[in-house]
Amino acid sequence: MSLKEHLIELRNRLFIALGALLLATVGGFFLYNPVMEILTQPLLDAGGQANFASAVSPLDLMIKVSVFLGLLISSPVWLYELWAFIVPGLHKKEKWTAVGFIGTAVPLFLGGVVLGFWALPFALLFFIGLTPGNAVNLITMPEYLDFVLRLLLAFGIAFILPVLVVGLNMIGILPGRTILKNWRITVFLICLVAAMAAPGGDALTMFVLAGPLLLLFAAATGFCLYNDKRRARRAAALAEEYERSARQASELPE
C-alpha cells in the first residue's frame, strides 16, 4: 500500500473506533452513579473526603467517567481496529489467529483495569497516610478521578503491550531473538512502570503487580520465537520448492 492508502485506512479505522467509543460512552452515562460509588469507596475507606470545587464539576466528572466506561465497553472494537492496522495483509489462516489474539487482548485489558483497581487502596493508604495528624485531607473529585483513571488505564494498556509485541513480530519488525536479547531492559522497564503506575507502601506490592506483566511478556517472547522458526521453515520450504521447479524446468527438452 502507498502512503496515501495507509492514511486512508488509518482514517477509516479511526472513524470506526471513535464511533464505537461514542455509542459506548452514551451507555456509560447510565452506569455513572453505581460506578462513582465504587470508585469513591476506596477513598472513603482510606480516611479521605471527596469534595467538588465548583458547580459544574459534577457534569465534568460525569462526562469523564462516561468516556472511561466507553473505552472499556468499546475495547473489543478499537483493539481490533488497532490490530488490523498494525498487522495488515495476513493470510486467511493468520486472520483467524489475529481474531484469537483480539479475544485475548480484551480480557487482558479489562484484567489490567481490575488489577489497577485492586492496587488503588494500597496507593491511597500510602499517600493519605502522609497527611499530618492535625490536618484533614480534603481531596477534590477532579483530582481524585484523574489519579484513579490514569492508574486504571496505565494497567489496562500495560497488559495489552505483549499482544502488540506479537503483532510487530508477525509483520517481521520485531524478531523474537531481539526481545530475548534485551530481556534485562524489559524486566527493568516493567518493574519501573509497576512502581510508577501503582505506588504502594512496600516493595511487595510492586512485585505483585509486575509479576503478571513479566509472565505475559515471557509468553509473548515464547510465541515470537516459535513464529520466527515457523516463518524460517516456511521460507526454506518455498526456496526448496522453487529450486526443484527450476531444476525440472531446466531438464525439459528444448
UniProtKB/TrEMBL annotation:
UniProt-listed PANTHER family: SEC-INDEPENDENT PROTEIN TRANSLOCASE PROTEIN TATC, SEC-INDEPENDENT PROTEIN TRANSLOCASE PROTEIN TATC, CHLOROPLASTIC-RELATED
Subcellular location: Cell membrane; Membrane
Domain of life: Bacteria
Membrane topology: Multi-pass membrane protein
Coarse class of the protein's main subcellular location: membrane
Entry keywords, A to Z: Cell membrane, Membrane, Protein transport, Translocation, Transmembrane, Transmembrane helix, Transport
Encoding gene, per UniProt annotation: tatC
One Pfam match: TatC
Assembly and binders: The Tat system comprises two distinct complexes: a TatABC complex, containing multiple copies of TatA, TatB and TatC subunits, and a separate TatA complex, containing only TatA subunits. Substrates initially bind to the TatABC complex, which probably triggers association of the separate TatA complex to form the active translocon.
UniProt function note: Part of the twin-arginine translocation (Tat) system that transports large folded proteins containing a characteristic twin-arginine motif in their signal peptide across membranes. Together with TatB, TatC is part of a receptor directly interacting with Tat signal peptides.
Family as reported in the entry's similarity comment: Belongs to the TatC family.
Protein name in the entry: Sec-independent protein translocase protein TatC
TM regions (residue ranges): 12-32, 61-86, 98-128, 148-171, 183-200, 206-226
Signal peptide start-end: none
